[in-house]
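Hey,
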Amino acid sequence: MHYQNALAEEIRDSAARLVAEDIGPGDMTAQLIPDRQWVKARVVTREAAVLCGVAWVDELFRRLDTRVILHWTAADGDRLEAGQTFLELEGPARSLLTGERAALNLLQTLSATATRTRHYVDLIADTGVRLLDTRKTLPGLRLAQKYAVTCGGGHNHRLGLYDAFLIKENHIAACGGIAAAVKEARDIASDLPVEVEVETFEELAQALDADADIIMLDNFSLDDMREAVKRTAGRATLEASGNVDETTLRAIAETGVDCISSGALTKDIKAIDLSMRLVDQ
């Protein structure tokens, strides 16, 4: 419930920021168009994609002009083919043109995350391995991109620093070891999952002995991942991390790990090519 409430608030806040940064005190060019001119438009994707961002666009145009009517022919998570029209709009020409760039910016970014995620998920679909995102998101778009990952069939690792423990090298050093770090985490918040990042088999054994819920295998080789799976024998969830891309993903999944995390889903995406065009009345 917290996530849903936070996402709804994020959608409202994002729409407000988009309007403020692009329109400011007013759209100068839109004033060239008669105030009462009514038009229709359609949004088309020039490439195959997975759609994401419907609620953001709805909220953006609601803030701009409640007279704008939006008709979606696809929903978040749907696959789009190149050349497909997935949104038709009708309303005052000024409002449609004023909101065009902000709406497309958001759609092309979130759809890019959903599309990349779906591509990766498809590569490992028959392995049973879960694909996870990371905190390597675009600034200001954390919840939006996390949502986009789920639209692409992926899973959220953690939303931020507040909803899980992820004990890394520096935390371990500062706490005096893996066992001490895990114990302290349990004492602070026993209801939160505790994950430990390990770089060696010795650290793996320590994390298992400390009863960590999740163990992240950081930059393990494929052979070492397979060995880690054997040594763990189901005592903890194993997450593979590091050097994950479309060329390595399948091989990593086949080692037997439970999940794979990748910052590539969110941090270095290429925007989907979208276009809005006015149509003849």
